[in-house]
Amino acid sequence: MTHVVTALVWLAVGAVVGVGIRWGSVWLARREELKPAFRRRDVLGPPVLTALLFGGLGWLVGPHAELLVRSLWVALLVQIIFFDFEHGLILDVVQLPAIVAAILLSPFTTGAGLVNSLITAVGFAVVFVILAAVGSAIFKAEALGFGDVKLAALLGAMLGWPWGGTALILGVLLAGVAGLVLLLFRVRGLRQGLAYGPYLATGALIVLFEISASGAQ
In Å, how far are 33, 34, 80 from 208, measured between CA atoms? Predict the structure, then answer.
């Protein structure tokens, strides 16, 4: 019963947080001299998705400290997903403070610990820099942006090892499937870039829910 009540309350909290995410993203876009879109998916997407994800976390975790920390990361990942889809950017003003916070809060997210979190963040960043260089050499175009490199570091800091590795693998697989579909339907050419951020963030969301469902920390 406690988990049911927590889920319902947290679903409502998620809807409010989602509205804040949307309007915070609009403010950030204008601050960066970007033009916000006001399509239905852009306006309603963050509140609806955040509410559903918060409600799910409330059901799985219950009224514990981990719920607050993991909900913080859910909100951040939702912002990254919608902002990157809309503008093709992941802002430093969002990611850089989040990396520091993720390292400090890592014991309460997955139990990975500060050292594990820091090493994983640095390792993932290095790997993605190498992948970006190799991809650019092969496709003669930018394969990964530095926003994606910093996002990989953020996921490493947030989840630590081995959970962060699982998130990256899931994200890369999701991006591969999406890229293939876009290519098959001729929506995007072979040398056109793909916004990896939403898929990497989705991989992290899946892992956060897997952790919460298993009761791991």
Answer: 33, 31, 16
> Cis link prior to 97 (omega < 30° from 0)?
no
Structure tokens at 81: 């997903």
CB atoms within 10 A of CB 72: 18
Contact present, 170 and 203 (Cβ < 8 Å):
yes
Contacts of 84 (CB under 8 A, 6+ apart): 90, 147, 195, 197, 198, 201
The type of residue at 136 is: S
Distance in angstroms (rounded) separating the CA atoms of residues 184 and 191: 14
* Pairwise CA distance, residues 101 & 6, whole Å: 25
Half-sphere exposure of 10 (CA within 13 A, CB side): 27
For the entire predicted model, the pTM comes to 0.90
Can you tell me the distance from the alpha carbon of 8 to that of 10, in angstroms, rounded to the nearest whole number? 5
Between 9-18, 27-36, 136-145, 171-180, the lowest mean confidence (pLDDT) is in 136-145
Q: What is the mean pLDDT of the chain?
A: 88
- Beta-carbon contacts of 51 under 8 Å, excluding residues fewer than 6 positions away, are 11, 12, 14, 15, 18
3-state secondary structure of 91: coil
Domain segments of the chain as ranges: 1-89, 90-217
CA nearest neighbour of 172 among 146, 144, 192, 147:
144
Please give the structure tokens belonging to residue 29. 């876009």
Q: Is 149 helix (H, G, I), strand (E, B) or coil?
A: helix
Q: Phi and psi for 87 in degrees, rounded to 5?
A: -120, -10
